[in-house]
Amino acid sequence: MSTTITVSSQEPLASGTADPHQYDFSRLPKYIHPPETTEKLHWAELVTLDLSDFSNEGRKERLAAQLEHAVHHVGFFYVKNYGLSQEEVDQQFTLAKAFFNLPVDEKAKYECNYAAADYNGWRRNGNRKQGQTVDNVEIYNIPKFTPDFEGKYKQPPLLQAHLPEIEHFSRTLHSNVVLPLLRLFAIILKLPDEDYLVNQHTYDKKSEDHFRYMLYHKRTPEDWAATNGGLGGGHTDLGTVTLLFRQPIAGLQILGEDGNWTSVSAQPGTITVNLADTISHLTGGWLKSSVHRVVTPPKDQWAYDRTGLLYFARPHNDTILNPILDSPVLQAAGVKPRFETPVTMEQWVRAKQTLQLNPKISEKRWAESGDGTVEVLAGFRDRRYKE
Fold it and tell me: Would you place residue 213 in the very low, low, confident or very high pLDDT band (cuts 50, 70, 90)?
């Protein structure tokens, strides 16, 4: 399946750039994936959807049937044949590597506004406690390429030089992966309109979708021990779906219905997809927001950083996060609202990001609850998950 994406024009590089070609891919050190682990891990068995079948007559229904168990009981699966070449994927990994290799003072020019719960831009590592030490995660988020965000966030010259490719990459993921999946969800839920969920997730209307470069810095054995191995990091994502590109450093785990953690393997040519909170809110929990974490990788991968490419899809900011009433599946299940009062997507994002971006606020509120949960908004509570 492939969709042609029209990329908007971008501003030229700032005047004074010594060499307009200094950021050409031919001049950037190529990203090379670390080797896969040789250790035997307990791997999760996840379904793989071939999106090239989506447009073939009668195949959507088969794909929906293939997907139903995964979205109701697991919350994780793979997709392949999503309309981007391996070269395009590798180029984005190369940009991620080049960005994170910039001096801290340079990255700090693009740091996100933590107090305003604005996550676009650079988020430095070391801000959050993790066990007896601090986190090792750097993030750079890029919002949608729409008028709502135009000119709001400056980009470093490295990324400014490649905004057309980044926009094409982001838009392709939205059109070739996110929207087809939403149509499959609608078929599974037996909604009256296949585009029911798509109409809440159009690209051009304001929403908080974003593309992310992510880096887990390698740690010493002593640092890994001080983190408790990341075992207490179980969480759900806040949006509709998260798309994670293959990278071979093992460590991503999902919590099964049986209460056990299993590892997610790096399948060649695939994107790993997990369902998140918003789609669960819209279905009263029927579509499963998966609990996952990143733990200490196998020892034969301790010498490597873990670089990630991700795309986070979210509905329009004005979407009310009440269960869909037009689904006979949800009616039969008797689902109920997960909030005490109506909540918009914009309110939900701000509430979740306030906790995620401000460790002192988060620690205070978790401590005040005293029961392993914290109220995020309108009676909905996050919780700690088993180690």
Answer: very high
